[in-house]
Q: What sequence folds into this?
């Protein structure tokens, strides 16, 4: 993209493809501001311009999600979801539509990660992992990760099937 003939503090928005998050379109606002320097009048005005990229507040967008899987009892399982958004999203996990109880044995971690290039500031890339050290039949069900911030939420769900005998 080439930008020409911009006026001081002129704003515009550009839609760009974000291949790192499956080619979704993200609105990016770009502000060009003129720097006040002591350049002689005959200097080109364009030499005193610098772009500043501004990422406006946005609802979460899932970047990576887990898939449906079937495992043997005793297997280690890691279900991962990652999202971007401004402000950075927080995750909540459920099993069959219910909060996961403390005695379930799941370990849930969440943190900022260095995201793939092209998805915005890495400080807004959040990875959440639900880990099971030793899967049991009762761990089977529909797991959902939901990323939420002050602008909205987005969710993904898939089944974890743990083989076992029918009671």
A:
């Amino acid at each position: 993209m080439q930008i020409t003939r911009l006026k001081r503090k002129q704003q515009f928005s550009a839609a760009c493809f974000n291949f790192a998050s499956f080619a979704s379109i993200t609105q990016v606002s770009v502000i060009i501001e003129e720097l006040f320097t002591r350049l002689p009048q005959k200097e080109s005005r364009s030499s005193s311009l610098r772009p500043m990229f501004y990422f406006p507040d946005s609802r979460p967008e899932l970047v990576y999600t887990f898939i449906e899987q079937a495992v043997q009892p005793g297997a280690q399982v890691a279900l991962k979801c990652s999202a971007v958004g401004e402000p950075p999203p927080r995750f909540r996990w459920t099993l069959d539509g219910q909060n996961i109880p403390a005695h379930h044995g799941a370990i849930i971690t969440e943190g900022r990660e260095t995201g793939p290039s092209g998805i915005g500031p890495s400080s807004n890339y959040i990875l959440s992992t639900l880990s099971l050290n030793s899967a049991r039949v009762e761990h089977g069900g529909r797991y959902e990760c939901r990323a939420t911030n002050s602008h909205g939420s987005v969710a993904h769900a898939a089944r974890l099937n743990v083989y076992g005998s029918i009671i």
Remarks:
- Confidence is low (pLDDT under 50) at residues 6-40, 42-54.
- The two ends are 63 Å apart (CA to CA).
